[in-house]
Amino acid sequence: MTTQLLQPRRIRRLLFFLFPVVLALGIVWWQRAPLLRGVARLLIVADQPVQADAIVILGGGLETRPHAAARLYREGWAPKILVMQPEKSDITGLDMVLDYGALTHKLLLKENVPESAITMLEPEVTSTVEEARVLAQWVAQHKPRRLLVPTDLFHTRRARWILRRILQDDTIELQMIAVPLRRYSADNWWQTEPGVIDFQNELIKSALYRWRY
User: Among 27, 158, 181, 195, which is least packed by CB within 10 angstroms?
Assistant: First the structure.
């Protein structure tokens, strides 16, 4: 008899504790869109373009970054474009296909950027950290006050952090221009596989950069 009374009591107690959890999960699911948008914006820096000394194209994003840089140049925001040169692969080293730097250069020319406005930076790089170090050498020679950096949505905050850390010059203003992507945006990134992959990769890279540098 006692056991029969205890079982409903335990069930009621279990339901009493489970109800708030289920309710909370339901609210999170119902509000998932604004929550996921908010999480994404923790990784995004979206500055407005202002007059600058140069536009910096970091490696990667061949479909978007050169186009965004060319647009900024044509609109008169800066008089020159600096192009990073990622390390050549075995195939590009054999001149079987164009390397990233050469492709970016050709794209800029096709976007009506004159040769005289394009500067190919050396040496070749393999990461955002190495790009920051190469940029630091150029900065030491040319003493710019402001740079525009068009890059992918989720890359903006980590790129700004490492650039500031390597440049170590508070007088240089970095304007991070978040480049729109065709496959997803900050408002729907979780609805596409590329968006989820890019988001999770950037979370890992951001944590790694904070730990290592």
Answer: 27
Question: How far apart are alpha carbons 86 and 88 in whole angstroms?
Answer: 6
Q: How far is CA 63 from CA 12, 59, 136, 174, in A?
A: 58, 11, 26, 22
Q: Could you give the CA distance from residue 118 to residue 108 in angstroms, rounded to a whole number? A: 8
Domain span including residue 132: 54-181
Chain mean pLDDT for the chain: 84
What is the pLDDT, as a whole number, of residue 190?
A: 82
pTM for this model (two decimals): 0.81
- 142, part of any domain: yes
Q: Using CA atoms, how far apart are residues 129 and 152, in angstroms rounded to an integer?
A: 16
pLDDT at 26: 46
Flag whether 20 is in a domain: no
User: What pLDDT, on a 0 to 100 scale, did the predictor assign at position 95?
Assistant: 57
- Spans in the chain with pLDDT lower than 70: 1-33, 89-97
**pLDDT, position 90:** 59
- Residue 92: phi, psi to the nearest 5? -70, -30
| Domains held by the chain: number | 1
Distance CA 92, CA 94 (A): 5
Q: Is 132 helix (H, G, I), strand (E, B) or coil?
A: helix
CATH number, domain of 83, equals 3.40.50.620
| Residue environment code for 69-81, b if the CB has 16+ CB neighbours within 10 A, otherwise e | bbbbbeeebbebb
